[in-house]
Amino acid sequence: MGTYVVTGSASGMGAAVVDRLRAAHHRVITVDIDDADVVADLSTAAGRRGAVEKVLAAADGRLDGAVLAAGLGPAPGRDRPSLITQVNYFGVVELLEGWRDALAATGAAKVVVFASNSATTMPMIPGRAVTALLDGDAERALKAYRLFGKNAPTMAYGASKVALSRWVRRRAVDPSWVDAGIRLNAIAPGAVMTPLLERQLATPGEARAIRSFPVPAGGFGDPGLLADWVIHMLSPAADFMVGSVVVVDGGTDAWFRADDWPRPVPARRLRGYLRRMREFRAVRA
Ligand code: NAD
Q1: Of all helices (H) and strands (E), which one includes residue 120?
Q2: Which SUPFAM superfamilies match (predicted)?
């Protein structure tokens, strides 16, 4: 039986993943702001450092897998863009960087990060903020959100999930991760009925927007179904799965973006493509 760490374990999809792992007799180290083995506030750098260290100690330096589900939804409030940035982006990236060696120690670890279909279905997410996050610069990202006024938290949410998805895809193929046997992937849910969504539905303006959003399958997702996908992505079925963003959203992304992917490499990108070919050969030589 393996040892897994799950953040955002006290509620919603994280809690559903914990239930399934424990039912399969795995050891689970839970991390949340409350009601967890490791209580940590992931919105602060000190809280994130504490979570890294306490989990490493509890796991004895060896992790078979990690699920990063802690996250905040867009809600009104001046501090919200900053909180979203700290928890949703740095609360994943800093933890995983801190746990990399422990994941490498088991030789076949699996990591699942909770991204979102907001990354591809929400319009006008500022690219500058995404670049800033990938550069590790929260302040620059926050500046980009200010232009959006009361929509700043929504933009911060979308940008945090775009940056997270890109970070996953970049790190997943980096030799220091993939050659260590770590399989790093993301799941991108649509609207799933958890306390996070319930809170959004309790705000009349947000409820209208959420209920009018196209979901071809109808209704909302069930947290247990999403957890089933995560469990599959933690299993040996994911041995050849690297840097995938698995969209489970009732068809919203396909509705808006059917022709955007798969997209062949256009002629104007050929030079960059050939450069990546050379880089790969150089890394593997
Ligand atoms: P949830 O609110 O039910 O659970 C999130 C958990 O994160 C909670 O237990 C909460 O305490 C924890 N958390 C929040 N702030 C924290 C902090 N500062 N420190 C430590 N823990 C903190 O939400 P959920 O819907 O299960 O969401 C799980 C993940 O899925 C999130 O990353 C969310 O962005 C993502 N997601 C959710 C939906 C949805 O519709 N529910 C859709 C797409 C993506």
Answers
A1: helix 118-121
A2: NAD(P)-binding Rossmann-fold domains
User: What tokens were used for 220?
Assistant: 């909302």
**Closest CA to ligand 1's atom 31:** 71
Q: What pLDDT score was predicted for residue 284?
A: 83
Based on the residue annotation, tell me whether 145 is a catalytic residue of this protein: no
Q: Distance between CA 162 and CA 273 in Å, rounded?
A: 22
Pick among 3.30.420.40, 1.25.40.10, 3.40.50.720, 3.30.70.100: CATH of 3-284: 3.40.50.720
Report the distance separating Cα 115 and Cα 135, nearest Å: 18
According to DSSP, the β-strands at 110-114 and 27-32 are unpaired
Judge if the beta carbon of residue 167 lies within 6 A of ligand 1: no
Give me the chain's average pLDDT, please: 97
What is the distance in A from the centroid of ligand 1 to the CA of 154? 15
Q: Which of 186, 184, 213 is nearest to 197 (CA)?
A: 213
The SS3 call for residue 262 is coil
**Residue 152 tokens, joined:** 């700043």
Residue 204: is its pLDDT beyond 90?
no
